[in-house]
Amino acid sequence: MDIWMEENHTDGYRVNWKISELLWREQTPFQELMIVDMFDFGKALILDGAVQTTEQDEFIYHEMISHVALNAHPDPAQVLIIGGGDGGTLREVLKHPGVVRADMVEIDQRVVETCKRFLPGIASGFGDPRAQLYFEDGARFVKKTQGQYDVVIVDSSDPTGPAVELYGPEFYRDCFGILKDDGIMVAHAESPTFFTAYFKAVWRNMEVFPRRNVYLTTVPTYVSGFWAFAIGSKKHDPSKARDDKHAVDGLKCYTRDVHGASFVLPPFIQKIIDQV
Ligand code: SAM
Fold first, then answer.
1. 157 lines ligand 1 (CB under 6 A)
2. Which residue CA neighbors atom 8 of ligand 1 most closely?
3. Where are the alpha helices (DSSP H) in the chain?
4. Residue 25 and residue 193: Cα distance in Å, rounded?
C-alpha cells in the first residue's frame, strides 16, 4: 500500500509526497516532529506537517543561506545561527576556515537529537569544538546576549508556532544590536512568488539596516518556485563575494558567480519589493 503525506499551504494549494517509510513521529513541547523516508527525496525532517529539509536537496538551501553572508563579510569569525535544528546551516558555517565560533540557538532540543540520529549527514557539525548550542527561544536570546557577532543567520521554520516572533520587527532590531559595526544578517524570507505576505514582512523588517537586498535560489521541496533570502548589512555590499580568502572547496550549489547572480531579481519580484 502506498503512503502519501499531504502538505497544506492554502485552501487551494496542497502538495502530496509519496513516503516509503515513517521512521519517527513525536509531539515535542513545541511541534509535531516526523522523520520520513521519501520516495524521491531521501530522508526528510517534517515539522507540523511542513517539509523542512530532505537529503536530496538540502545542500541548495544550506549552502545559499550560509555562504553568501560569510563570503560577503571580510572576516566572519563570530557567527550566530537562530533555529537550524537539523544542523545543515551549522555544517556549512563550520566549513569556513575563518569561523572561530558558531553559536546556534534552537528552541527544540528534540529536533537536534532526532536529526543527529536519522540525518547524520546533515547534523554533522554539532561535535565541532567551535560550535556552541543553546536550547532556548531565539527571540529571547538575541534580546539578552552580550555576544557581538559578525554574521547572524536566521534559519527558522515557517512563521507559525514557535517561529512567529522570528518574523517580527523587534527581533530584527535586536539582531541589528548584537552585530558588530560591519555585521551582516541573513534570514530566509519564504516564497516571493505567490505567498508573498511573509516575504514582504521579512523585507520590511530588514529596513533597520542601511543596506538590504534580496537574493534567490530554488529548492525543489520548498513550494512555489523561487525561494528568497533577505540580507541586511551595516557596511559591506552583500551582493559582492569579497575575495577568495574564505573559498570553500566541494560545494555543490554556491560559487562566487552564483553569489552575484542570485542578487539579480526578475522585474516582478523587484516590483513587490519596491511596493513594500
Ligand atoms: N530550512 C527550514 C525551512 O525553512 O523549512 C527550516 C530549518 S530548521 C529545521 C528550523 C528550526 O527553527 C526548527 O528546528 C525549529 O524548532 C526552530 N525554531 C522555530 N522557532 C524558533 C525560535 N523561536 N527560536 C529558536 N528556534 C526556533
1. yes
2. 84
3. 58-72, 88-93, 109-118, 138-144, 169-177, 196-205, 256-262, 267-275
4. 32
Q: For 216-275, how does the pLDDT look when each residue is reduced to its tens digit (9 = 90+)?
A: 999 999 977 899 999 999 999 999 998 776 778 899 999 999 999 999 999 999 999 999
Q: Which residue has cell 544578517?
A: 185
CB distance 87 to ligand 1 below 6 Å:
no
Is the CB of 54 inside a 6 Å radius of any atom of ligand 1? no
- Give the DSSP H/E element, type plus range, for residue 67: helix 58-72
- State the span(s) of the chain assigned CATH 3.40.50.150: 58-236+251-274
Helix 267-275 crosses helix 196-205 at what angle (to 10 degrees)? 60
Please tell me the distance between residue 256's alpha carbon and the centre of ligand 1 in angstroms. 27
DSSP single-letter state for residue 88: H
CA distance 46 to 85: 12
Annotated catalytic residue 244:
no
Q: What is the number of the ligand 1 atom nearest to the C-alpha of 108? A: 16
pTM beyond 0.85: the answer is yes
Q: Which CATH architecture has domain 3-53?
A: Roll (2.30)
The CATH T-level fold of domain 58-236+251-274 is Rossmann fold (3.40.50)
Residues of the chain with CATH 2.30.140.10: 3-53
Centroid of ligand 1 to alpha carbon of 235 (angstroms) = 28
* Atom of ligand 1 at shortest range from CA of 65: 1
Closest atom of ligand 1 to 112 CA is 14
